[in-house]
């Protein structure tokens, strides 16, 4: 077998090659700009221009007899459809990126993604972990008297918040429909408040169902919580997430739907995650990431330790169980969690929800 000798380069040649690579990189960098991912459409993303490149493309001159070619100018605030470099991770609404634009085609290409402060993800229908939104500050867990509040789902979202390092906010929407004798929902809010979770009550529903005077109830308080924050509204379908967004951002024109008469469950209205900014000209002022309506949120990708850490009052007790591999079921011998339930220190339903979520995570979804 013939040996291939590597040609030995002189120092002058090495310096020349390094200079050429540096100049090439500088040229690439001069054409890149900052942007924020606003929506995800399969292999393409919408990116809003938040800074202009050092070198702005110039439209070529056109001869008198030449047809006018396609040309898309660059301007702050514009939204471009972009492809993504194949070596980048899956991106999501809220990601801050560096990208380049091709004014001759009207498409851009994302070259890099900036470090994220948080990432909310969920398993998709193919059991792969899919990012929902990046750099989120608050996850607003929306529930309502109808469809009835599901504490298990709320606890599920609280685990997601803890794992993603995102602040949770409980939002009881359609509070005007809450009966005076509905002690369970009111007690639910009291219990979460005792754990340190903040909540706000709003009364926003489809315009044809709610009087205008009620439409704005609680919105001022909600705006105070989410001011200059990037927020996700999550919860069961039909609790009024899109209606809340319409009330907070009238220009968002979110689709709304009504409760199904047969199932009493909401009908899905949102189809893709999209960032809706509070100020379209200044994305640093925050906004809302509207996500597809989901009735369940898979947590199979989390470990038992991840899940119990999301139950903030139960996590410190788990280390005091008699056995290190305690499953915390009702018949677990020497379980510190059930001992605390017997003493009235923690809620029984929270321990039961912990067990339910842990067992779900142990069960492969395929």
Describe what is shown at a glance.
With 366 residues, the chain is an alpha/beta fold. Helix content is 27%, strand content 21%.
Q: Report the radius of gyration as a whole number of Å.
A: 26 Å
Number of strands: 13
Estimate percent helicity: 25-40%
Main sheet summary: 6 strands, mixed
Q: What's the order of the H and E elements?
A: HEEEEEEEEHEHEHHEHEEHHHH
- In the predicted model, the low-confidence regions spanning at least 5 consecutive residues are 1-6, 22-27, 207-215, 255-270
Average of per-residue pLDDT values: 82
Could you describe the 3D structure shown?
This protein is an alpha/beta fold and 366 residues long. Helices cover 27% and strands 21% of the residues. The protein contains 10 helices and 13 strands. A 6-stranded mixed β-sheet has the order 10-9-8-11-13-12, with helices on both faces. The chain has a 5-stranded mixed barrel with strand order 1-2-3-5-4. It starts with 10 loop residues before the first helix and ends with a helix. 33% of the residues are buried.
